[in-house]
Specification:
alpha/beta; FAD/NAD(P)-binding domain; 3-stranded parallel sheet; about 35% helix; disordered C terminus
């Protein structure tokens, strides 16, 4: 799980289990996780009320690119979870449509209007209660 913006307090378990960009070590750990991403599922998202969606999508695209370059593009299911609509995140319907096209092109699943409330060592739980299991090298 990746969060951009300073609203991480709404996600229980954020500092214990998520990768983030909020300190000096965070980006290094995130980079290491992306390099070791080989199989399973990864959930990349942001906490509710985060203000900057770009790093979430950049991480998803970089992960897909790395998997493609290493010859195993279908070995990891990449899921991007956003708390609102993608149109609201980017503030522009045309930009949102272009991002959605790229997500489809790269085989990245988009789940919108699902705010994450809890992050565990192997599970991400949205406010609605459904869970995503995470691989050991999840983001």
């Amino acid at each position: 799980m990746l969060s951009a913006g300073a609203r991480h307090r709404t996600c229980y378990g954020f500092f214990e289990h998520a990768h983030h960009l909020l300190d000096v070590a965070g980006p290094l750990k995130l980079g290491q996780a992306v390099r070791h991403l080989n199989e399973g599922r990864t959930v990349i998202g942001q906490c509710p009320a985060a203000r900057l969606p770009d790093p979430v999508y950049e991480t998803a695209f970089a992960s897909a690119k790395r998997l493609r370059e290493n010859g195993n593009p279908n070995s990891v299911m990449i899921t991007v979870v956003c708390p609102g609509s993608i149109e609201a995140e980017f503030g522009d319907e045309k930009v949102a449509a272009l991002v959605q096209q790229e997500l489809l092109k790269h085989g990245i699943e988009l789940v919108s209007r699902v705010p994450i409330s809890r992050i565990g060592s192997s599970v991400v739980t949205p406010s609605g209660g459904n869970r995503w299991s995470r691989s050991r090298h999840s983001l």
